[in-house]
Specification:
Structural class: alpha+beta
CATH architecture of the largest domain: Orthogonal Bundle
Strand content: 5-15%
Distance between the termini: 120 Å
Number of domains: 3
Radius of gyration: 37 Å
Mean pLDDT: 78
CATH class of the largest domain: Mainly Alpha
Order of helices and strands: HHHHHHEHEEEEEEH
Number of helices: 8
CATH topology of the largest domain: Chromosomal Replication Initiator Protein Dnaa, Chain: A
Amino acid sequence: MTPTVQAIKCHVAKSFGIPRNSMEGAQRNRQIARPRQVAMFMAASLTQHSYPEIGRMFGGRDHTTVMHAVRKIRELMEINPDFADRVKEVQSAIAASPTSAPGAATDDLEEAARQACKAAVRRAKTEMGAGVSGKPDTLRRTLLEAFGERTAFTGMTRDGHGVELLVSAKGAWSMIEVAADGECARMIVSGYELQSPEPTTPPAAPPAPPAAYPCRDRCMRCRKTFTRTSVGHRHCTDCRNFLSDHDSNLEA
């Protein structure tokens, strides 16, 4: 029979003499971190849960943390026979009686409740008109474990209710409303990604100003280069004089 992750936590915590809830805590000292890594290693070895699922069961940790824990425990077992024997002893005890761990029945019920909360939250995110409510801490923990969402913004409505925006690193988000007495919370709206506002189209560049005069140009008649001093002058001085004399002769 496949053991539960909660049963693994209980066995490992008892073997190393630490509180079971420290498996999900933020402590990083070796007395806590090493047993937590052992529990992650066993969860990956004895259950069918993926690394992301295991990470969420250990306080909403990233899957890379679980991968590091598995790699670290394997390395320690290869170089430290005493540590390897201790890990194997706990692993054998778990495999022999996966449901007989201290508090296993209660932990199994807690795990079932967590899975039900996650299912309700996922349904609220995917089904039109579905909602979810509960204790504020339960709702926050469920959003953290299911989607990796953490509180990024808090506010207050005019009637005294609290409003929280929870966001994950991957863009999933939820907004919850907390009652004024702090006893109940409900999800108001949620989504799977945050999008930044569309960049505004930059204004068109103004037309280039006309070339400053005087400037160099090519005569339209003789094709020689000359210095033009105004817009209307497209002929060199010699051609302008010639054309002017020609027009005068025609008028005469």
